[in-house]
């Protein structure tokens, strides 16, 4: 069965169930089922490869016990088992004492998960469809699982508020490529959503893995936090699909709920790659976790304060997506930007065109690249152009990673040497930015300014065109009347 056919078959079955309401619930339902299928297939592998491995799940709760047999539980018996036995048992793994790391992973996934389906017969049909068509331990099917995951993400984009945790693949890839993570460096996404930045980093680091010890170091260096249940569930599944078998470092939590002063040296990391939620407001009281100079309820600003605090002294580096509003905003934003220029090297701002995050938002966005150990001497700006013939991006014409070849050719390698002013690139001194009250919304000085001309001159030209059009219409009417023998 093809991927599209498989996903459609599952969704068509779920649409018949009165308990599942809308795309988001269908996706959530599909993800916890696929997670358990993946976990069961992985357990078969671990029993062969991990000495002394013992499942954290009682035998009756393992997928192979209750779901694998197509003639197994169904109807009311299945719904009763899932709602009253399976889910309570899996949720307990999140907080119970003495649970293995593998068990903690399952618990964190199911902590806020729900079974929305009410028909055990339809649930059995969904389970059988998943079980019959994919085996995670077959290399071909493992690739198919990645495709299934990407298709789920694609569907999630249509489910309403997906823009809160979805970043175009081309953007995540470019940011990781430019930061160039190295094995052994700690990498954090404090608002990781479905794990896009982290999986890009894993794929980048996989090229450096040579031994089992390298694989262990990779697993230990990936860190993420996501506060919403559905994207966290997707992130955990995504980690396992990318070889992070025990993703206990990807936590279900709100990074901002911990007082900034409580983050100590042990919490600092080498690299932060993220697209923090922007345009949103945090709940009352969260701002009190931050010093007065940072106190605001605007989510993106609080995340910037946190990111700057969590980078390791002298070595920490970050790539962060932020909206135009951060560049020209005042108040807390000014305080953050002053510190960014005085205590960090804000070396590059890539200005992305509108439409990159379409259809969620038309707000123009930017990627800020900075590192600990400032101060900033000058900021390079690079204005990313639309491809020839484009006026915007769309779902059918998205931003592609190949477009960033422009930035990569100009970047100047790891040391950023030999950068030159071009039609897309220019630099502004930190002194000038300070004099602008830290307004970083610097326009491209090479952009050809459109001359809209004087309104009176334009009106006169318009009237002339109208007169010419009327004269042409009169002449055409005369010609037609002549052809018709003068009849009106």
Describe the structure.
This protein has 488 residues and is an alpha/beta fold. It has helices spanning 3-15, 23-49, 63-66, 75-92, 101-110, 120-133, 139-156, 169-179, 196-206, 212-221, 229-241, 299-310, 324-328, 332-343, 405-411, 430-435, 455-483, and strands spanning 187-189, 222-226, 250-252, 271-274, 317-323, 344-351, 365-372, 378-383, 425-429. The chain folds into 3 domains: 1-139, Up-down Bundle (Ferritin), CATH 1.20.1260.30; 167-434, 3-Layer(aba) Sandwich (Rossmann fold); 452-487. Helices cover 45% and strands 10% of the residues. The protein has a 9-stranded mixed β-sheet with strand order 3-2-1-4-5-7-6-8-9, with helices on both faces. Helix 12 (299-310) links the parallel strand 4 (271-274) and strand 5 (317-323). The protein is globular, with a radius of gyration of 28 Å. Pfam families: HsdM_N (PF12161), N6_Mtase (PF02384). Keywords: Methyltransferase, Restriction system, S-adenosyl-L-methionine, Transferase. Belongs to the N(4)/N(6)-methyltransferase family. One of its GO terms (biological process) is DNA restriction-modification system.
């Amino acid at each position: 069965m093809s991927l599209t056919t498989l996903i459609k078959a599952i969704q068509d079955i779920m649409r018949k169930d009165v308990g599942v309401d809308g795309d988001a619930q269908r996706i959530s339902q599909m993800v916890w089922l696929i997670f358990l299928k993946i976990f069961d297939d992985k357990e078969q592998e671990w029993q062969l490869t991990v000495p002394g491995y013992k499942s954290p799940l009682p035998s009756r709760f393992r997928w192979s016990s209750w779901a694998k047999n197509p003639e197994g539980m169904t109807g009311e018996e299945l719904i009763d088992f899932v709602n009253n036995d399976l889910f309570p048992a899996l949720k307990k793994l999140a907080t119970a004492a003495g649970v293995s790391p593998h068990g903690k992973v399952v618990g964190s996934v199911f902590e806020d998960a729900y079974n929305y389906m009410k028909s055990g017969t339809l649930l059995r049909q969904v389970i059988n469809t998943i079980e019959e068509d994919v085996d995670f331990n077959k290399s071909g099917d493992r690739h198919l699982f990645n495709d299934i995951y990407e298709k789920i993400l694609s569907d999630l984009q249509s489910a309403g508020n997906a823009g809160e945790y979805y970043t175009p693949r081309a953007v995540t890839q470019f940011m990781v490529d430019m930061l160039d993570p190295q094995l052994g460096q700690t990498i954090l996404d404090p608002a990781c959503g479905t794990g896009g930045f982290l999986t890009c980093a894993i794929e980048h680091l996989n090229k450096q893995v040579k031994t089992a010890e390298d694989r262990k170091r990779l697993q230990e260096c990936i860190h993420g936090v996501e506060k919403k249940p559905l994207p966290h569930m997707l992130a955990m599944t995504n980690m396992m699909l990318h070889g992070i078998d025990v993703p206990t470092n990807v936590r279900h939590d709100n990074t901002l709920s911990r007082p900034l002063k409580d983050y100590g040296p042990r919490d600092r990391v080498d690299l932060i790659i993220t697209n923090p939620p922007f345009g949103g407001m945090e709940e009352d009281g969260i701002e009190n976790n931050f010093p007065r100079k940072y106190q605001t309820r605007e989510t993106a600003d609080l995340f910037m304060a946190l990111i700057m605090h969590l980078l390791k002294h002298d070595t920490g580096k970050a790539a962060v997506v932020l909206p135009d509003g951060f560049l020209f905003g005042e108040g807390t934003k000014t305080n953050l930007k002053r510190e960014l220029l005085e205590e960090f090297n804000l070396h590059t701002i890539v200005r992305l065109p509108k439409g990159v995050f379409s259809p969620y938002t038309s707000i123009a966005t930017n990627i800020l690249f900075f590192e600990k150990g400032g101060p900033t001497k000058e900021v390079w700006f690079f204005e990313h152009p639309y491809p020839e013939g484009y006026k915007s991006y769309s779902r059918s014409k998205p931003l592609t990673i190949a477009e960033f070849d422009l930035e990569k050719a100009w970047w100047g390698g790891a040391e950023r040497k030999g950068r030159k002013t071009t039609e897309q690139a220019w630099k502004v001194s930190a002194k000038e930015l300070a004099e602008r009250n830290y307004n970083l919304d610097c326009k491209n000085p090479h952009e050809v300014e459109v001359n809209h001309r004087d309104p009176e001159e334009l009106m006169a030209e318009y009237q002339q065109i109208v007169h010419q059009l009327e004269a042409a219409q009169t002449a055409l009417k005369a010609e037609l009347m002549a052809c018709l023998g003068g009849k009106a």
